Structure of Glycosyltransferase 61 catalytic domain-containing protein:
Amino acid sequence: MWTRRHLVFAVIIFTSSLYLLSSNPHVEQVSSNLRSLTKHASSPPSPFDSLETPNANHDTQISETTLPLGAPAPGFTIFDRLYVRNGTLFAVTQHPEGYPDLIYVLSQGKNKGGPDNIDPTPREMQVITPTQAKDILGDYATVIEGTSIILYDTSQFMAHYYHWWGEIILGAMRIYSALSFIPGIETPLPVPSRLLLPNVPDMSWRDKAGVNGPLMHAAFPSSSIERSDYWKDLSDIDQTFVFERAMLVSRVAAHKSPLSSVWFKMISSTMNVTAAVDFWEPLRRRAVQNMIGYLPMMNEAGTVMSPPTSSAPIVIYVSRQGGGRRLRKEDDEDLVNGLKELEREGICELHVAKMETMKFKRQIEAVARSTIMVGVHGNGLTHQIWMPPSARSTVIEIFYPETYLHDYSMLARNMGHKHYAVWNDTTLTYPAGQWFKGVNEGTRDNFHGNSIPVHGKTVADLVRQRLRLEVIPEF
Ligand SMILES: *[C@@H]1O[C@H](CO)[C@@H](O)[C@H](O)[C@H]1NC(C)=O
Ligand SMILES: *[C@@H]1O[C@H](CO)[C@@H](O)[C@H](O)[C@H]1NC(C)=O
Ligand SMILES: *[C@@H]1O[C@H](CO)[C@@H](O)[C@H](O)[C@H]1NC(C)=O
C-alpha cells in the first residue's frame, strides 16, 4: 500500500537522483528540465549554487600536467593537475622527456634502510601521454581544489619535532614560495588546503611529545590532514581525481639530491632554490598567534613591546642541564653569569629556559619574544623557527669543540637568523653561499656527553656584539 509518506519518500529519491545526474555534463538537458520543473513547482531556490550554476570546475576534461617550477629540488616537486586513480599518481604530458626521473619525485611507501630497493614503480606513479590517458583515466576527472601537499613517506622519519617542522614543512613552504616568482601565478599564494599522508595508516606521524599535530592546526587552521584511509576512499571510488596543484614531498627522493652530501639534511635539495624573502613569516605569525593568543611585537631595538614588556631584547638560553648532552657544570654557571652581567648592563634581558619543565605554549611564547637563542646542539634549537627574524636575531649553537652538524644552521639560514657555532672560546659563522665543510660528530662521548666545555665570556661578548649591531644613531 502506498501511503503519503511513501510518496514523499519516492519524490525525494527521484529528485536526488536527478540532482546527482545534474553534475554530469551529459545530462545537462535533464537537469535544465528539472530546474524548470522545480520552478513550476515553485519550490524555494537551492541553498547552494550547484543546481542553478553547475560548477564548471568540478568535472573537467583530462588535460596536461605541468611543472610550474620545473623540478629544481628532488623530493619537493610541484605539479599543476596531477591525477590519481586507484591509488596511482599520473602526470599527463606530450613531453615526458621534460619530466624528472621519478626516483627524484617519490619512492615506494616503505621504510628506508631495509635491504629492498624502494625506488618507485608504476604502481606509485606514471608519466603518460594524453593518448594513454584516454584509456587509463577516461574522459573526465573530479577536481580536488587548492594546493595539496602529498607527503609520500612512511611515518619512519615524521614523528619528530625537527624532522617534521625543520625539514618537511620548512622544505615544502620554501619551494612553494618560489611559485611567487613565476609570471602568471597569482600572489599571495593561498595557504595549502590539505596535507595528505597516503602511506600513514595511523597516528604514527605524531611525535611523542604531542606537539606537531597541535602546531599544524595552529599554523594551518583551515587545512585538513588526511591519512591512508583518504587515499583508499579515492581508490575505492575507481574514478579519476585531479589535484589542481600538488606538491609531492618525499624524504627518500630528497636525499637523492647531490646537495644531500653537502648538508646531509632532507632540505638540502631546496637550499639553492631561491625562496621568497620572509617566506616563513606568515606561517610563523599564524602559528604563534594561534598558539598563544597574540603575536609578540618588538621595537627597532628588539625590546618586546607586547605586555609584559621587556627591559631590553630578550636572550633565551635553552638549558639542557636537566638532560643528557650538556655543558660542564662549571661552564654552564660561567655562561649564565656572563649573560647575567649583560643583563645588569641593560644590554639584554636573560631568560634561562628549561624547556622540559615548561608547558609547550609557554615555550613557544618565550621563543617568540626572544631575539637571541643560545644553547647546546639539540632539538631545543628547533624552536628558533618561532623566533622573529630581525637584524639582530641570532642562534648561538654550542658544540663540543671541532664537531659540527648542519641541522640548526640550516634552519637559521631559512629563518633569517645569524647562526654561530661555538667551540669553547672560538666562534664560527658563514656568510651566504659558504658553510662548514662536511660533518663531524667526533666521538659519541664528547659530542653527546655531559661535559661539553664553553667559555662563557666568549658567548657573552658575541651576544653583546650582536645586540649592538645596529645601534640606532643618537643625535
Ligand atoms: C587497483 O589497484 C589494485 C592494486 O594494485 C589492483 O589489484 C586492482 O585490480 C586495481 N583496480 C582496478 C579497477 O584497476
Ligand atoms: C647548488 O649548490 C651546489 C652545491 O654547492 C652548487 O654547486 C650549484 O652550483 C648550486 N646550483 C645553483 C643553481 O645555484
Ligand atoms: C676554553 O677556553 C678558555 C678560554 O680561552 C680556556 O681557558 C679553557 O682552557 C678552554 N677549555 C677547553 C676545554 O679547551
User: Anything to note?
Assistant: Residues 86-87, 123, 238 surround 2-acetamido-2-deoxy-beta-D-glucopyranose (ligand 1) (CB under 6 Å). The domain at 298-467 is CATH 3.40.50 (Rossmann fold).
